[in-house]
Amino acid sequence: MPSYKLNKGIVDNQIFEEFEEQKGVSLFNHSANCCSIDDFLAIAYTLCPDIIEINGYIFISDLFDAEGENALERIRRLEEQFNGDKIKIEQWVNSRSLGDFFIGSYTQSMENDKIIDEFAKALVYFWDKRVKELFPNKNIIIEIGDEIMGELGLSITMYEQL
């Protein structure tokens, strides 16, 4: 007897109906009509970014703006600023407003809470998979919230829960 089972993706494909401008007949088709290979690679990198560990701190590499000796000095200053609170240091560095992911590509869809929520869920899913793959023995939290660490609006952050 034949069987059929649909295993849903992490993004609800019905979100396509909320798009300001639909470029295709489905969410899958839309991506083929609006993203270049460069766009896809940039998106893949954003969903699965470089992660660095410095003196036990875990950061999204692109959000930590120092290397080598400068990185150690930056850590020292952060430890002073946050009284050595590892969680607050990681939250501070790893926080980003969801709107900042689209600085150069604003559309009216940014005002649609359903679309923003789907984007947030996708980021959490992929970042969580990434850190669990890299640090299986650490309890790293990917969190979505309003104005985390002073960010504007709905934001994402990452930190190790000790």
Keywords:
162 residues; alpha+beta; two-stranded antiparallel ribbon; 5 helices
Task: Explain how this protein is built.
By secondary structure, the protein is α+β, with helices and mostly antiparallel strands. It has a domain at 50-160. It is 40% helix and 15% strand. The protein contains five helices and five strands, in the order ααββααβαββ. The chain has a three-stranded antiparallel β-sheet. It has a two-stranded antiparallel ribbon with strand order 1-2. Strand 4 (140-146) and strand 5 form a beta hairpin. It starts with 26 loop residues before the first helix and ends with a strand. The mean pLDDT is 94.
Task: Give a short overview.
The protein has 162 residues and is an alpha+beta fold.
Helix vs. strand class:
alpha+beta
Question: Rg, please?
Answer: 18 Å
Give a quick account of the main beta sheet: strands, pairing sense, barrel closure: 3 strands, antiparallel
Overall 3D shape: globular
Terminal residue distance: 51 Å
Strand adjacency order, main sheet:
3-5-4
Low-confidence stretches: none
Total strands: the figure is 5
SSE series:
HHEEHHEHEE
Q: Residue-averaged pLDDT, rounded? A: 94
Helix content: 25-40%
Number of helices: 5
Strand content: 5-15%
